[in-house]
Amino acid sequence: MYVKFCIWVSFDFITIVIIIIIRVEKLAKSGAKMVIISNSSRRSSITMDKMKSLGFDPSLFVGAITSGELTHQNLQRRDDAWFAALGRSCIHMTWSDRGLISLEGLDLEVVQNVEDAEFILAHGSEALGHPSGAACPMKLEELESILERCAAKNIPMVVANPDFVTVEARALRVMPGTLAAKYEELGGEVKWMGKPDKIIYKAAMAMAGVDAASDSIAVGDSLHHDIKGANAAGIQSVFITGGIHATELGLGSFGEIADSSSVQALASKYNAYPSYVLPGFTW
Q: What share of the chain is helix, strand, coil (3-state, %, to 5)?
């Protein structure tokens, strides 16, 4: 199999980052173009800085595209009819401990009263943005209460990080995707700006200058986000079993081969079907 373009999605298993660095270098030398896609609510430049801090050579990649970057670009350009109709006043759900998300250059008015809001912008799940630019820490239940009032007003939401949870220090942290899912349950309209929506895959392909889906392949460890997104975009995919699904697959160590029937059952559970399956990111 030969591909011209590889969408390299962000992995959670940072403990094997040295192995991945070696594989990425070999892949780059083979002539494949690589773009990192991530559901981070931050701008792409921050993701590239993080990759450099982990030991990756940024020149090996065409670039990175994040959910936060897509959100920022669409809110700024507003050349899409859906975004053009949003208005300028928003309820901003953001981070506190993880660091604020800047709205500079977007010409938005952050409001705290639902009655004054035209849409919800969900960058984080820890705080409510203040008109001054500060953040007021809030519990998840408090943010969900605000969503109930927003749903009653029937205003749309833009979610800049579709992940439901992430793992930090062996504990699960709720991410903005959980708020978005809750809002849909309440009957609210949500614009999902990252995996598994095909929008982020198409943006990555455009960045690499690749038109044909047959020339592309996505590599990732999340069936719901990475593989399902590749399915939606119509491109091939490689499912890495030694990532976030390792426990579900009964794997105890990196490199262990997953039982094929277990992989098939898990793929059916998530309605996400990979083209290829590997125990780890190898080339």
A: 40, 20, 40
- Name the nearest CA neighbour of 187 among 150, 143, 161, 140: 150
C-alpha dihedral sign at 179, 182, 186, 187: positive
Element (H, E) at 154: none
Distances in Å between the Cα of 40 and the Cα atoms of 9, 11, 68, 99 are 11, 12, 6, 13
Whole-prediction pTM value?
Answer: 0.84
Q: What pLDDT digit, counting tens, does each position of 227-283 carry?
A: 999 999 999 999 989 888 888 999 887 778 999 999 999 999 999 999 999 887 655
* Strands 89-94 and 127-129, sheet pairing: antiparallel
Structure tokens at 214: 């047959």
Q: Give the pLDDT band of residue 1 (cuts 50, 70, 90).
A: very low
pLDDT at 213 over 60: yes
Exposure string for 254-269, b = 16+ CB within 10 A, e = fewer: eeeebeeeebeebbee
Sequence-distant (≥ 6) Cβ neighbours of residue 147 within 8 angstroms: 120, 179, 182, 183, 186, 188
> What span, in angstroms and rounded, lies between the C-alpha atoms of 174 and 18?
28
To the nearest 10 degrees (0 to 180), the angle between helices 67-77 and 198-208 is: 90
Please enumerate in sequence order all residues whose Cβ is within 8 A of that of 222, keeping only pairs 6 or more positions apart, or say none: 9, 195, 243, 244, 245
Distances (CA, A) of 220 to 7, 138, 216, 244: 9, 32, 13, 10
Closest CA to 201 of 222, 221, 230: 230
